[in-house]
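Please, structure for the following, as C-alpha cells.
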Amino acid sequence: MSTSNDLAGKVAIVTGAGRNIGRAIALQLAQAGAAVVVNARSNKAEADAVVREIEAAGGKALAVLGDVGDAKVPAAMADAALKRFGRIDILVNNAALRREKPIDLMTYDDWREVMSVTLDSAFLCVKACLPAIQKSGGGTIINIGGMSAHIGSKHRAHVMTAKAGLVGFSRSLAHDLAADRITANCVVPGAIDTTRSGASKPAHHLTHGTITGERGKPDDVAAMVRFLCGPGGRYVTGQTIHVSGGAYLGV
C-alpha cells in the first residue's frame, strides 16, 4: 500500500464506511493524508473502530451515524465535516443494501428501501456536500457501483437498478461539474471477499469467475478510489471503472 501523502489537507466523506469496502476506502484515504468523515447507518462500534484506527496511525477522523437515504442525515453530515475540518474535497458514495428477493415476491417497500439507501442517498449527499466541494478548487465524487448491474443476476432487480442508476448519475455529474474542476466516476467492485449478513454468496459470484484466479480484497477497490482522489486521477472523469479481476469479462 502506498504511503504517499498526496491527499494532505483534504477532507473526505465516505458513506457506509464501518466495514468492508467502505472501511478500506476510509483507511486508505486517511493513509494518504486526508481527514475522513466515517459514516455508518447504525453500528456505532464499527464506525468508532475505524476512527480509532485512523487516529492511531496519526490521522484525523470523525464518525457520523445515520441513514444517508434520509435527507436530514447528509445535510447534518456535511455540517459536521465543515464544523470539524473546515472543508470538503472528496465524497465517496458507498452506502448500499445488497438484498436478494425474486421479483414476484418483491414489494414496493423492498424496492424503495434499496433505492433510498443506494441511489437516493448518492443524490442527497452530493446536494449536501456540493457547495463545499465547489469551493475546494478541484474536488472528487466517486460512486461505488455493483457488478451485477452490468452482468445481470437473479433476485436483484432493485439492487441492479439502483447500481445502474449510479453509472448514469456519475456521467451526469461529470458533465455538470467539469467547469468546477470536480471529477465524478463510478468504481464497480466485483468478486470481492467481504463480510455479508447472509450466509450464501450472491448468485453472480457463483457464475462469474475471475481471470486472475483469485478473489479481490476491499483494499483493491480502495486503491482505485485513492488513485482517483489523488493528483494522478484529475484527468479521469465520467468513467465506469471495474475492479473485478476480469470477472466482468464473463469467465
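The CA atoms of residues 58 and 96 lie 29 Å apart. The radius of gyration is 17 Å.
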